[in-house]
Amino acid sequence: MAGTINKVILIGHTGDDVKMNYFEGGNCIGRFPLATNEEYVNRTTGERVSNTEWHNIVVRNKAAEICEKYLKKGDKVYVEGRLKTRKWTDDKGMDRYSTEIQCQEFTFLTPKGESQGQGQQAQQPRQAAQPAQPKAQPYNTNQPSQPAQPTTDTSDVDDLPF
């Protein structure tokens, strides 16, 4: 069947800073863990249950450099990509498998200055005199980079549909 699709959309928090690997020829790969959470109430016991699922995110080249520069542990990010399973051999000679998300688009959702990885600055309260932050712009790894267009909307309303 020719009409198949391999697409993953995640919104979660980074579990660590981006780890970079550089190669000859100027190419690079960035990897980071992403946590998504599910919460519900158990019907039989009435207790609140929280499950965390961890995803291995892989970003390449310019997109990896952008993620390394701006993403810190604990930041919220939207990731769109595809599933890829890699087979590798461990040091005992056993075949092992890793499932990763090959990132094709991402959008940083943590507002500038509120990143948990920025230490003291993140603990300072926001002042009302500060200008509003521009809305997050998605980064598509499949298209050539284009200069960011300035936004005129200064409302603090999220543009997410949920």
From TrEMBL:
GO terms for biological process: DNA replication. PROSITE patterns: SSB. One of its GO terms (molecular function) is single-stranded DNA binding. It comes from the Bacteria. Residues 117-138 have a biased composition (Low complexity). The keyword DNA-binding applies. Residues 139-154 have a biased composition (Polar residues). Keywords: DNA-binding. The keyword Heme does not apply. Gene3D superfamilies: Nucleic acid-binding proteins. InterPro entries: NA-bd_OB-fold, Primosome_PriB/ssb, ssDNA-bd. Residues 109-162 are annotated as: Disordered. GO terms for cellular component: nucleoid. Homotetramer. NCBIfam families: ssb. This is Single-stranded DNA-binding protein. It comes from Dokdonia donghaensis DSW-1.
